[in-house]
Amino acid sequence: MTSETKNDYQSGEEVQPVHDGDFREEKKQVAKNIRQLGQSDVVEQPPDINIHTINIIGQIEGHMVLPPKNKTTKYEHVIPQLVAVEQNPRIKGLLVILNTVGGDVEAGLAIAEMLESMRKQTVSLVLGGGHSIGLPIALACRYSIAAETATMTIHPLRLSGGMIIGIPQTFEYMEKMQDRIVRFITRHSAISEKRYKELMFRTGDLVRDVGSILMGREAVAEGLIDEVGGLGSAVAKLEELIRLSDEPKGGLQ
Amino acid sequence: MILYTIVPWEVIFQDEGEIQPTHVVNVAGKTFSVRRTEEGDVIERLHSTDPNDFLDTRWSPGNLIVR
User: Fold this and answer.
1) Which residues does chain B have within 8 Å of residue A158's beta carbon, measured at their own beta carbons?
2) Catalytic status, residue A155
3) Do B52 and A69 touch (CB under 8 A)?
4) Distance from C-alpha of A181 to C-alpha of A179, rounded to nearest angstrom
5) Contact B9/A160, CB-based, under 8 Å?
6) Per the confidence metrics, is the pTM higher than 0.90?
7) CB distance from A229 to chain B under 8 Å?
8) pLDDT (tens digit, 0 to 9) for every residue of chain A, 253 residues total?
9) Could you report the predicted ipTM of this complex, rounded to two decimals?
10) Which of A38, A167, A202, B53 has a CA-to-CA distance to A161 between 20 and 30 Å?
11) Which of A184, A26, A19 lies closest to A105, judged by CA?
12) In angstroms, rounded to a whole number, what is the distance separating the alpha carbons of residues A180 and A86?
């Protein structure tokens, strides 16, 4: 019991001071506007925002720092954010917005596993692209939504950065790495391993390459993504999940 | 490190110049890894055990700490 009260106190105290000064400044500004113009043009932030949002954009950066021209999502920053969201009693849900070209396998899987094991409600929204390692992240959330124009590229893992298949073990290692991704995807969606690998090695979809490009509706038809939608439906779904989780469980008291 | 991305390796690493060293600095009681630039220190990474520090946008990677 003591540890619980301590936790509540700590997180409550830690979060509040961050915006305290800004709010006061904003209020002053509103008062000034009302006096001068007879109206308030500053929208005050409602106090009951109980969801947080995380943007997964560009390359997912992992073990290696990418050259500065790449737009990256740094996993070492995202992971503690997920810890804060999971622990903060005032945050009820998390909206994960993806527009990513993929990136580091292990960093991507790390984010996906963190999202998957959260107790807080999670909804993902794929806009633009959720390619390569972005797909497991989208599927790790409790509910996944893709925009109609969103694309997801499914393709095999490739040798990169001077790796050469000199011995059969290198090939087996690559296959093992790929299996980690395939297994995560098939475990968190309705697609079968056989069908997923079919899409992965399909020819004719990508120029001079194997793999498939799925648009929003196709991804839903294949059983990967739950629904085609946008911001409105994503937030509505998240609110619904929060409401359902807040309802007292049935049974004897 | 294995990258799983639709962007070709050559495109990602096309403008890889010299590697800039990172420095560790203490600002506002927090420790950061930063890259030194003329305008100030650019945050590369925040070192903290308090997860709420990571929700504070002031400490996001890429932010500038003016010396």
Assistant:
1) 4
2) yes
3) no
4) 5
5) yes
6) no
7) no
8) 334 444 443 443 444 344 444 556 666 665 665 565 555 555 555 567 899 999 999 999 988 888 878 889 999 999 999 999 999 999 999 999 999 999 999 999 999 999 999 999 999 999 999 999 999 999 999 999 999 999 999 999 987 666 677 888 888 988 999 999 999 999 999 999 999 999 999 998 887 788 999 999 999 999 999 999 999 999 999 999 999 998 876 655 5
9) 0.78
10) A202
11) A184
12) 25
CA A30 centroid distance within chain: 35
Q: In the structure encoding, which two tokens stand for residue A226, read together?
A: 């739950």
Q: Is A160 a catalytic residue?
A: no
| End-to-end Cα separation, chain B, in angstroms | 35
Chain B contact residues (CB < 8 Å to A) = 1-7, 9, 12-17, 44-46, 48, 50-56, 58, 60-61
Cβ contact A44:A80 at 8 Å: no
Closest chain B residue to A74 measured between Cα atoms?
B61
Tell me how far apart the alpha carbons of residues A128 and A226 are, in angstroms, rounded to a whole number: 17
B66 — phi, psi (to 5°)?
-80, 125
